[in-house]
Amino acid sequence: xxxxxxxxxxxxxxxxxxxxxxxxxxxxxxxxxxxxxxxxxxxxxxxxxxxxxxxxxxxxxxxxxxxxxxxxxxxxxxxxxxxxxxxxxxxxxxxxxxxxxxxxxxxxxxxxxxxxxxxxxxxxxxxxxxxxxxxxxxxxxxxxxxxxxxxxxxxxxxxxxxxxxxxxxxxxxxxxxxxxxxxxxxxxxxxxxxxxxxxxxxxxxxxxxxxxxxxxxxxxxxxxxxxxxxxxxxxxxxxxxxxxxxxxxxxxxxxxxxxxxxxxxxxxxxxxxxxxxxxxxxxxxxxxxxxxxxxxxxxxxxxxxxxxxxxxxxxxxxxxxxxxxxxxxxxxxxxxxxxxxxxxxxxxxxxxxxxxxxxxxxxxxxxxxxxxxxxxxxxxxxxxxxxxxxxxxxxxxxxxxxxxxxxxxxxxxxxxxxxxxxxxxxxxxxxxxxxxxxxxxxxxxxxxxxxxxxxxxxxxxxxxxxxxxxxxxxxxxxxxxxxxxxxxxxxxxxxxx
Amino acid sequence: xxxxxxxxxxxxxxxxxxxxxxxxxxxxxxxxxxxxxxxxxxxxxxxxxxxxxxxxxxxxxxxxxxxxxxxxxxxxxxxxxxxxxxxxxxxxxxxxxxxxxxxxxxxxxxxxxxxxxxxxxxxxxxxxxxxxxxxxxxxxxxxxxxxxxxxxxxxxxxxxxxxxxxxxxxxxxxxxxxxxxxxxxxxxxxxxxxxxxxxxxxxxxxxxxxxxxxxxxxxxxxxxxxxxxxxxxxxxxxxxxxxxxxxxxxxxxxxxxxxxxxxxxxxxxxxxxxxxxxxxxxxxxxxxxxxxxxxxxxxxxxxxxxxxxxxxxxxxxxxxxxxxxxxxxxxxxxxxxxxxxxxxxxxxxxxxxxxxxxxxxxxxxxxxxxxxxxxxxxxxxxxxxxxxxxxxxxxxxxxxxxxxxxxxxxxxxxxxxxxxxxxxxxxxxxxxxxxxxxxxxxxxxxxxxxxxxxxxxxxxxxxxxxxxxxxxxxxxxxxxxxxxxxxxxxxxxxxxxx
Lengths: 497, 498
Prior knowledge:
The structure holds 2 protein chains of 2 kinds.
Chain A: H1 11-16, E1 17-28, H2 67-79, E2 87-88, E3 91-94, E4 104-107, E5 114-115, E6 118-122, E7 128-140, E8 144-148, E9 160-164, E10 171-177, H3 184-201, E11 213-223, E12 233-238, H4 241-260, E13 268-273, E14 278-284, E15 294-295, E16 302-303, H5 306-314, H6 320-329, H7 335-342, H8 345-358, H9 361-369, H10 371-379, H11 390-401, H12 407-420, H13 424-430, H14 439-452, H15 454-461, H16 465-478, H17 485-496
Parallel strand pairs in A: 12-13
Antiparallel strand pairs in A: 1-10, 1-11, 2-16, 3-4, 3-15, 5-7, 6-7, 7-10, 8-9, 11-12, 13-14
Helix pairs in contact in A: 3-4, 6-7, 8-9, 8-11, 9-10, 11-12, 14-16, 14-17, 15-16, 16-17
Chain B: H1 3-9, H2 12-20, H3 26-41, E1 47-50, H4 52-67, E2 78-82, H5 109-116, E3 120-125, H6 159-166, E4 172-177, H7 183-188, E5 192-195, E6 215-220, H8 223-233, E7 263-267, H9 277-292, E8 296-300, H10 308-323, H11 341-352, H12 355-368, H13 374-395, E9 400-404, H14 419-423, H15 430-434, E10 439-447, E11 456-463, H16 469-483
Parallel strand pairs in B: 2-3, 2-4, 7-8, 7-9
Antiparallel strand pairs in B: 1-3, 4-6, 5-6, 5-10, 9-11, 10-11
């Protein structure tokens, strides 16, 4: 392996080139069973316990397609405005590999389940971007090899290998993008868009750490304004969104350096070294592998009728991009707020229901992203699963907005709703928590506080402003927080003048 | 003739009837077969593995079910199973060194259905390695002889199953047919061999040769028994995505005694004059017998059938090159160690596969390769469609098509050392397979080969439109009943002449 440590090129060199990036990612679909057999599709498990004759490719075993996985594909396709062809088929991709039990992978070659399409996404500054999709196709995952005897788990120097076929045959969706991405930031934002969409559709958990999302990036550079693409490299081994960002950035810098020195980019596959922060040459693509694709004779071509597509379309939830735009455009949420909500679909749905009742997005947002999220984090209970119903929250927002209760009381009521459930209005009424703004009633609390705290009165007279804060606290305490705090201060100052 | 001899010569229907009526227990039958079989098969070589314990277990279960009031269509019928079908707990070799010691951990759907119908598994029969061959000579494990002349081959690839039924070492047998592997050995061994429409019988548990062509079917000594066996194994299987999801149409009640009102097509391109005067005369007589039963003979044309062999020898190897990739030494079967995984693959596959299997893997790999795919694989698929269309047109003018089942009667060992000479044995059966049609071979006479002294059987192939199994078996029964060719030959041989 050749390691090239890239030094960051000067800014003018960076400005000279435009990065052209395409993403290929594999996403494991969330289904009860595997793609072509009845084994459970579950992460982990003792090695080789989730296997059967089909996914072990025993002689004579035959694949039967998982209808739920095919529906997931239609869902994904519709989410990104892909064409869903009426006919599709599975093909065999032939190559030998020990963790691929049949020594061919059932995949899709020239008639994928979806074609074209576009992923709309946003950047941290709110810029909207689009990346076209080439296709999304359905295939099966391989098993996992563990190389032993070398000490470091690498194949080089290992004396034997162990294969776990639990993952073999798990339905896998391969998304291939057009080279429409122009920066590492965009690449990660694009992946975020895929992730939140697949999670929202319920078709994948998209956990990179469990390998349910794996992605490669094709990176090339060209002079800004040029129409031709430069020579690309394919980056592999990126294990998190962060490493995708670092790897692409590092590769852009490496290529910029090469071009600036007048050297050529070699078309090759490069592996990302997380610890070293650089990409390494893995193998040059001297010749495309001949996979001898041909239609799988064990499987009949799929006919996707329009009625199925329409049924799936009708059942699609509001997609993240639509929700994001609604929050930003109609509710005037900030990019960060909208993103935070969109990335937590159950919280966003909760938010929407509360807003439906309260008609005050800002008030609801304060609670949802503030105290409610804090309570959820502290307790480990999701807001949507808490005892605070969206309707109760809407009441609380309405009571606060109408200044029937002050913010201190609102916080207390929220805690009570969190612990016991019920209606905000009922709590406020039963406990007499409505804000007291009657000067006579407030005056009575104030007089009692002044009588009980002569030292504070003296301190205030001596110019200590802190004493006033203490006295306000005493009044609020005596009124169980109901006194209008602004009125309390006015009356206190008046009395001590 | 002893009671055991009666058992071996009886038909499936008669055995099932006597067991269902509790005149004879399945356990007794299993015991008689267990005792007699090893000696009877010693020289013939039909079986690779005998399963006496399993047979006994099944016999016990059959007797229990009958005692509980059930009637089973194949109660106590001893059956043989081609060794490319999985039978749980039993060695399943495909006639290959690659799987010489592989024990199947599950049972093929068709086998399971046959046993559920009351059949008793005698054992697994010899075959050309991975079903590639027409003589059984490509078996890496045993030589199977023709029960009508031990110097001759039983045909293939299902040669062991055909020989077992022909020699009365099984009442029924399962075979698999990709390009003629049931029909040709049936013709050679004087038995009925039936390949149903592609998709009628589940392929789950059948070790694949060419997935788009492979089809399981029965061997029997009568059409009626073949129909009984077919009825037991046919029908939709959710484990096979290519299995036909349609209600089963039983055939055993559709057997006819005449062919009145039926049009039988004689294929213009399948003239028999080149096969020699004796064979030519035999088929002329067979066609005349069909007419005598009331059938109207019509000449039909299959102009693309002559491309059948070339088409087949692209599609079948292409599929097999991929299907047989899994025999890599990693998970099961033979493994020959190497310095690294690549060398292990090479050594394992070099040692595990015989020449014909390697030849077809090479041809298929080539045909699928980038740059050749369109010229070979795609073109072969187009030819396949053209052949199927030819049959469709022909069946607009007739109900059945009659032809020879094989180009010659059984030949002597090593007579066809040129692979293409061997491939030509399936000239008449391959086009039918490419079209996915149901077809069978029924005995239609015998000739003494030029290089032999004994009369060797011939088979008449009858082919029908897709899913016309009832029509096909019904008509074949009428022909068989009227001609009785199977019974005209001397008793089959089961031991070498002293």
